[in-house]
Amino acid sequence: MFDVAGSIEKIEDPRLANQMLEKVNDFNVKIGLKLAGYVVAFCLLPSDVVHSLLQATGVVAALYFLGKE
Amino acid sequence: MWGEFHLDSHTLAKIGITPANRPQSSPNLEATSSILLFVIKALDFVTVPKPKVSPEKHHNMGLQSMLLYLLLVTHSASFLLTQRVNHRHILSTTHSRAATCAATASTSTSTSTSLGMIMSVPPPFRNDGKFKIVKDALDQSGILPRDGEEKQIFFGIFTKKSQNLPDKETRERLREEAALNLTNIDEEERKRRKLVGNSFLLLTYIIALLTTSGGSNDFIGNFVRCVSCSLPFALGYSYRESGRAGL
Does some domain include residue B9? Predict the structure, then answer.
């Protein structure tokens, strides 16, 4: 299915539809694997380490957004 | 793209041409074939199809397909099959137009089947991949539009009635762009998904800060931290990546 021109439409070209399906399936698998990896890493790390990392990330993110503005 | 197309003995056998029944070449036969081949190449030269995604634009492909069909169904096919046929004729016609044309013009089922085989017409699309369950769920949910309905995806899982549809030309252009980039959602929806994704990631960040502030490393503390962060993180990350990839 396409939703690129204002409404949901069926993809008429079977070759394109197959390519799209392959890409979407591939994307879903990769996202699932990455998510699982991040969650496992997050759960395995000790709380105090995670907390320090989060604080550091917060400072970096704040500096980034302030610099952008 | 510019490769050449060979038919080996196995493929020839599939379409019913064996060394035993292959017609012998004759000067007349070769002359006829050469003329047809020349016309095909001339047409190709005049109407060189650029690598576009939309096959509907190739208006002259029908004529080329007819000529190719003529070559195949007459005895001159044997001459052609021993030559190297430009792959582009086959490629550019496989987007259904050639097969339709050949099937319409054919007087013999077996011949059109053979032609279809040679042109490697793509099989009809079937969504039976790894995530077929998602498609089944969507079909049953009634989210997808029924015949004649104009609906639009909204925040990934909702739909709303389409409003302010662009004109036909703009829609065609958007479809072509999406086909080139292999994306299936529009720019507005991508922005919405990125917004949702970033919001969930921010929420995950706040939850993670709160659940780790005590610094306890006991099992229950870690369990609560992981469970409370995993769901918003999964949603946020998926939405954001979906917006970035346009899928």
Answer: yes
